[in-house]
C-alpha cells in the first residue's frame, strides 16, 4: 500500500471518529442541560410549598416531571393527590366494614371521615377540571376546601388509637400533597 492510499484510508476513518465523538459530546451536553432545566423548574415549582422537601420528592418521583412545564407539574401533584385521596377513602371504607370492634368513638370518627372523604375526592377532581380550563383561583378554592375536609376527618379521630392512627397518617400525607399542589398553582398563577 502506497503512503498516499494509506492517507486516503485513514482520513475518512479519522473524520468519522471525530464526528461521532463530537455528536456524542453534544448529546451528553444537551441531556445535562435538560436535566438541569428540569431540576430548576421543579425547584421553582416547589418554592411556595410549605413542605419543600416533600414537594421535591413528590415531583422527582414521577418521570413525567423531567419534561413537564409548570402547568404539567401542577397536574402531576393534583393527580397524585387524587390517587391518594381515592385510596384513603377506600381504606376508610374497609376499616368501617371490618368486623373487629374498634370501639364506638373510633367508629364514629371513621364514619365522619367516610362522609367527608367523598367530598375530598370530588374537590380534588374539581381542581383538576379547573386546572384544565386555567381557572387557577378555582383550583385554589377547591384545594382549600379539600384541606378543610381532611382537617374535619382528622379532628374526628383526635386522641384515638388503632385504625384511627392509620387514617390519621394518611390524612397527614394527603394534606401535604394538597398543599404541594396548591403551592405549585400559586407559582403558576404568578407567572
TrEMBL record:
One of its GO terms (molecular function) is enzyme inhibitor activity. InterPro entries: Invertase/methylesterase_inhib (IPR035513), PCW_Enzyme_Inhibitor (IPR052421), Pectinesterase_inhib_dom (IPR006501). SUPFAM superfamilies: Plant invertase/pectin methylesterase inhibitor. CDD domains: PMEI-like_1. Keywords: Disulfide bond, Signal. It holds the Pfam family PMEI. Residues 1-16 form the signal peptide. Residues 37-184 form the Pectinesterase inhibitor domain. Belongs to the PMEI family. NCBIfam families: PME_inhib. This is Pectinesterase inhibitor domain-containing protein. It comes from Actinidia rufa.
